[in-house]
Design a protein that fits this description.
There is one protein chain. By secondary structure, this protein is an alpha/beta fold. Helix content is 28%, strand content 16%. α5 packs parallel to α7 and α6 crosses α7. It starts with 6 loop residues before the first strand and ends with a helix.
Amino acid sequence: MTRKRPNIIAFLTDDQGYGDLGIYGNPDLDTPHIDRIGQEGLCLNQHYTASPICAPARAAFLTGRYNHRVGALSVESNRGLDRIALGESTIADLFKANGYATGMVGKWHNGLHDMRYHPNNRGFDEFAGFLNGGMNYWNWIIEYNGQPKWSDGRYLTDVFTQDAIEFIERHKTEPFFLYIAYNAPHGPLEAPEEDVRPFVEMEKFTRAVCLTYGMIRRMDTGIGQILDTLEQHGLAEDTIVLYTSDNGPVHLGKGENNQTRYNGPFRGMKYDVLEGGIRVPGLIRWPAGLPQGETYDGMLHFTDWMPTLLQACGIDLQTPTDGMDVMPALQGEPQKLPTKRYWQFNRYDPIGTCNAAMRDGEWKLYWPRIEEAMQKMKSDNPPFQKNCEVPHFLMNVENPPVERTLSPPGDPELYNIDNDPHENINLAQQQPDRVHRMKRELETWFEAVEAERRRIF
């Protein structure tokens, strides 16, 4: 008999591209346990993050709203640009208010240096992880509900796996929402040698790719252990397991440090609103409520998961979102999904004609990057490094204006994603009316989300 209140486990990995899984066609990376989620549920072929960079993507996932609306623009925690506005409700807030045990394991990166932004104050009863945008995998410092813990010699991914298993075991007799945000395969690139060796022996990858694949291999093992824990306690049938990544892969570095690797048929990477930066893995399993072993080709977006998961648990959504409950579509019922989605990212003050995109059905309008607007200030790097080396600390956070001279925006480009997923054939000159209309719609969206952000900050 199906319980009325299923459990939820949401995996959100870090810098893992669409092509970083066997189920999405990687010929060299075997990920049997992660793939199992899709093989026993649905593999989503057109699943989009809300941003091509970490903190904004996570903010949208947690609130069901475009990241600009909630104030999370970029990753510079020392400037507060990763924060979710305090007036926003997170998915954890709503699950907690409706009687769920709520837990988070892993990387937060949605507000540091002020306890009002801490996961324990954003709906999570329990938190085991770190608040910063990154952490060392061997010489780590994490915390348990605000209490720091230094490395005990274990690999950090293994620590998070064990913390997740222990949460499940503590709450196996009550409904729970567990957000598992592994920081793998985000840098620094560190992995146990036994997980790296198989890729070294293939003699076809740089050291950086071998390490990246080793990190994913180790994470895959841990996810298998978590899925086995659900089986052991009779929880698998009524637990919704969602798996995704915050953004596309990093394809940077020279020589042996070059991370460029398979990413399906897509161009671009992390930071880009090209498909390679925003189309991410999406796997969902719910034996009691979803088909098994199927693919779903409709366009889905991070903002859909908050309304979808809450409604699946019988919880009425009391806050506005930019997404919708897509469970009926996933269950095979006729449902009209949104055909229009929007993205924009640059560093510091947002620029609507820089690295911005709009999907309208099969069509995609793309404003190219303005390179000067994509650069991170060198002065913003030391605070990140410090947070890898010391426990979380409180301090005043300021976001002074960034003075920079920007090149003029390029011309918008138009692609038919159904026919040209690699975004090679720019059809803007052949479709001037469509370009004009989509430019206006993207501009209207950008003005609206920015107006809302300015009202709250």
